[in-house]
Amino acid sequence: MGRTAFKRFQLPQLATTAIELKCRSSHQRQLSLFRAFLLLFVSFSCCSSPSPFVVFVADRDIAVVLLRFSYPFGGFSLFNLVSFMSVSTIPVICYYNGQMMRTKTDVTYEGRKAVIAPMDIPIECTFEELIGLIYSKTNIDKRRFRLSLNCKYPLRSGNRFQPFPIRDDSSLRRMLNLVNTTSIEEIELFIEVVRVKGLLNKSVGGHVDLFVRDNYNVAQPDYDCGPSSSPVPDIGANGDDEDCTDDGGNDEDVDNECNENTDVEVDEHASSFGYFTQILENEHGIYVSAEAPCCDVSNHPDEDTLDESSPFNFHLPPTPQFEHVENLDNAVASAWTPWVPHSSGYCGGEFVIGQVFNWKSDLQDVAKIYSIKAHQEFIVVASSKKLLVLRCKKAEECNCPWKLRAMVVKDTSLFAINKYAGPHTCVNPCFNRDHHQLDSNLVATHIKSLIKAQFTLTTAAIQASVMERWGYQISYKKALDGKHKAIRQLFGDFCQSYTELPRLFLGIEQSNPGCVVIWKTCEINVPNTEIFQRVFWSFKPSIEGFEHCRPIMSIDGTHLYGKYKGKLLIAMGCDGNNQLFPLAFALTEGENTDSWGWFLACIRNGVTKRTGICVISDRHPGIMAAMSDPDLGWAAPSAYHRICMQHLASNFMTRFKDKILKNLVCRAALAITERKFNKHMHTIGRINSEALQWLEAIPVHLWALSHDGGRRYGLMTTNISEVFNSVLKGARCLPVTALVQLTFFRLNGYFVARREVGANRLASTEQFTPYVDAQLQGCVVKAGSMEIVLYDHVKGLFHVKSRRGRIHRLNLHEKNCTCGKTLIYGFPCSHMIAACQHRCVDFHLFVEGYYSTQSYYNTWASLFHPIFNEDEWPLYDGPTIVPPDSLQRMGSGRPRSTRLHNEMDVREGKTSITCGLCKQPGHNRWSCLNRNQL
Known about the structure:
By secondary structure, the protein is of the alpha+beta class. It contains 25 helices and 30 strands. The model is unreliable at about 1-30, about 45-85, about 200-270, about 280-350 and about 905-910 (pLDDT under 50).
């Protein structure tokens, strides 16, 4: 507690008793004041006459408390207390280089590069002086950025806070007075930096403040005020609509409704490579919607939570001149809207004559959002490159005067509003399930930021996002069209991507030499033009790393769901830690004997010459034919073909429709010993002899683990390929250039993460991978309870009796055990470990080298190198590649699935179908009786 000094003196006009209190904190000040009151009471009890007292608290500030006492009926009462604060500066903590985040109860400031700067603000400081202090303190360029200030303001009910905008001297005074009126000792000031956009900025929905003079020279925008609309001379405001049509009037397109099928403009100079790298960098981030129930970002806090001194009783919502529409991308994708909450048929934000927009499309998007917010609809009266005229859809029915007319500013791409009549006066606003202005173009603008964050966004999620944003349920087709247009805006055109694909590979090979790219095209009669047929690619780190993997390769194919059909063929390896290892990819016209043979030939000629590789796949006829072709280099003994147990069981189930038999087939395939295999096959034959004959027609070494000979290392399915297919599932609807980029960045992510794991295990002197370590530890525990009998110490012959009484014979010199696990998996079984411990032999010597930590590190040691900027890529001087017309999907809407469905696609125990409208089982939404009522 601070030092308390007691002094008694008389002022000239007023007799007083003073107590000086020196404190370091508010808590100490309160204790000292209480102590002072006790001293005053003691002092007063010694006085013969009442006199006023004054308490001075002196430290950084001085608090003066006037106490006046009297003696009614021989007693004493306190009837007046006045307190105030007198300071020279106010401590303020400034936050900048981040973003203010608001929840229901608090306001925080977040950002990776957020900076905290303490400042002492003079109490007589003006708003302009504060702005100057912040610019000088933070070194923010005032010519390029303007500041948005908000302080953390406490509310009366509970420990709750609201953001209080600081815009003028009055709001600044209220902020500085928080130190006097509350227990806050340091004010938190949140600074948000807003870039001053250039006049010809091509951002979607960009709205700039212009003053267009007679010579159409544009003045500099005012940085000190928000993006309100400066007045613009009426361009033809006094004339009729026909008089305002310029030389481009012949191109005028007059219609009565918005063109839903209008093509999305794609910036020819924009690079999809830049968008894609940004998406991959932010892929693991979390998309947070500011519209969530736990986050209130409006300027209208609950009235019952505000006290009388709260600034929100006097704070008005944003001005109606589209205060935050200079960047429509943010206005559409975020929870902040430039209008106040609307009532039926009325929207608080109105257009004004003189508003200028960067592009015609920006004005159209803002008009659409305006109509959606007001639950009104408009029609296009006239639309050309230089003119846009809109009027209310119910103008004739309800005599609504709403009409907007805008023209292009001469020699620019800017559009200025020169006539406007509003707001709507319609008495019957539109409350349909869908909105005419909520077209696929606006949906594409809305979900573009969502696609950037997660390009696997489903159509149902888009419908839900639009519903939450605007309250309308759009159709599946409109959501799908919006997604396609957003993809085109971000990643480019599907057809053009085939033309750009050769140069993309040149850019990858430029920074990553050693990559293998093999093309197959068809010549046509058009000069210097060829039709795309196939392309194969494999990256150098994959080629080098596969030499240290186990000799296993899983191959599979998956469909493309973009504008063009096709198949993506994938080859996957398996490292020493039982993880997938991406090896090679190919885009082909489909799965057939020729395409699979070409794919495997590319792997053999360009990727690996290893012999004895075990290739696991399904029973596709093309794969079966290619693997048996000796000219391709995949026939035994160069390679060994095995089929996936899951696909075999699925085919079996499709044929015989018996789950019990299917389970017996899986048990027979997984059986390690021939004894168990024969037992399960005998059971299948007793139940269904035809099923047994069907299985016996398939060579047993292709699907039974007991007859495999240790080729497949216990891998019975193509799951490693299926897993990577699921990783690429969202990208299979993207243009082919984006798909190739995704494989590059995905592989780099795998290599970086697992290279670090391998380096850490090498540094900690771990001998084997985590997968093998876990397996060996389990075998060591089992070996402790086994009985060992030695027969020949020279040849290492033993028999080992397990805890269950089963006897296994093993030979240490031949690394063989009758249980078969050592041969199958490549590391010693529990019986071999027991024999090694009996003879004091190190059982780690029986682990294959693929499982060592050094091999694991070497598998992922090769590096991917960053791709250069697109303008630095080598020029492509070959023929122009165009997609084949035969692969283009006909019609619009959801593409029809080309997958051959079988019982693997049917969920066991699946419930009956449920209606999406009434949520009742037994029918769908199309046959629902309540469809017209909902």
